[in-house]
Amino acid sequence: NAGVTQTPKFQVLKTGQSMTLQCAQDMNHNSMYWYRQDPGMGLRLIYYSASEGTTDKGEVPNGYNVSRLNKREFSLRLESAAPSQTSVYFCASIRAPYNEQFFGPGTRLTVL
Amino acid sequence: DQQVKQNSPSLSVQEGRISILNCDYTNSMFDYFLWYKKYPAEGPTFLISISSIKDKNEDGRFTVFLNKSAKHLSLHIVPSQPGDSAVYFCAASAPGTYKYIFGTGTRLKVLA
Fold it and tell me: How far is CA B39 from each of CA A83, A89, B84, rounded to the nearest angstrom?
């Protein structure tokens, strides 16, 4: 039981490049989330998927797109990376509301 | 607009003493609150939660108190141990949403 896995662990991009961050969970959870963590800003919600087939914007969605590929997988895409997107990205999942979230280990992204 | 605030960026406590971490929120619709602990280079892990129908929840050394009229919650750790040194985040959720809003975090250092 791996929990929530994220790939890659580290990535360096140049401004304007695109990339997709992958997230998968094996706990049969219904809802999945993408957050970014920046110094002094805490964890900010980018997008979430309440259930398979649905996605919604969070607090900071600009510059990102998401795909809920199936119940297990939720990917985050940066179409044209900007230095302001340098951050640590965390994926999380929950079985149902009023439950705790389980987080992945994070992806550290640097945009030059 | 920061809906969940942790006004103390850092806190130092002697081993064996009580650690008190505070969190304030502005949205009166929030009815479920959680605390997470985060070590460097790892994802946050769930610590304890409380529903708005309660004012206290205990789990071993950890107790969360909720004061709805003040829109304030606190996490008490007794006794504090060096292994508790981490960043602590509070989070809140409103009914009918799948969104969890996090505070900016408090770095706790427990001194041996």
Answer: 25, 15, 9
Q: Which residue type is seen at B10?
A: S
Which B residues 53-112 touch A at CB under 8 Å?
A: 89, 91, 93, 97-105
In sequence order, what DSSP letters do the residues of A4-26 get, joined into one string? Answer: EEEE-SEEEE-TT--EEEEEEE-
Q: Tell me if residue A83 falls in helix, strand or coil.
A: helix
Locate A23 and state its tokens: 């997230």
Is B44 in Cβ contact with A103 (below 8 Å)?
yes
Q: For testing the chain B interface, which of A43, A102, A108 should be mutated: the one with the most B CBs within 10 Å?
A: A43
Extract the tokens encoding A25: 């969970």
Instruction: Specify the pLDDT at position B81.
Output: 97
Complete DSSP assignment for B19-83: EEEEEEE--TT--EEEEEEE-TTS--EEEEEEETT-SEEEETTEEEEEETTTTEEEEEESS--GG
Question: Are A18 and A77 a contacting pair, CB within 8 Å?
Answer: yes
Looking at the complex, report in whole angstroms how far the Cα of residue B104 sits from the nearest Cα belonging to chain A.
4
Tell me whether residue B30 is exposed, middle or buried, using C-beta atoms within 10 angstroms of its C-beta: 0 to 12, 13 to 18, 19 or more: buried
The string of pLDDT tens digits covering residues A50-93 is: 999 999 999 999 999 999 989 999 999 999 999 999 999 999 99
A39 band by pLDDT with thresholds 50, 70 and 90: confident
pLDDT digits (tens, 9 = 90+) for B37-69: 999 999 999 999 999 999 999 999 999 999 999
